[in-house]
Amino acid sequence: MTGEAYVTDPSHPLAVPSTAASKAKYPQYDSGVEPPFRPFWALRPTTARAWTLEGFPRGATRWRFAER
User: Which of 7, 9, 30, 46 holds its CA 20 to 30 A away from the CA of 56?
Assistant: First the structure.
């Protein structure tokens, strides 16, 4: 995947559910202490590629996303 990664406001609508999902999936990395600032990274994709090992390179797929 290629695109622009950027830090957005921690109040972004996806920040709370993705933080909860991360804590549930990776509890070993949660110290239980909330940091004073928790940045939320987002990716605005421009291109994504996918394939399977069996189908590569014939089955490779590419998606291009419109720039905003």
Answer: 46
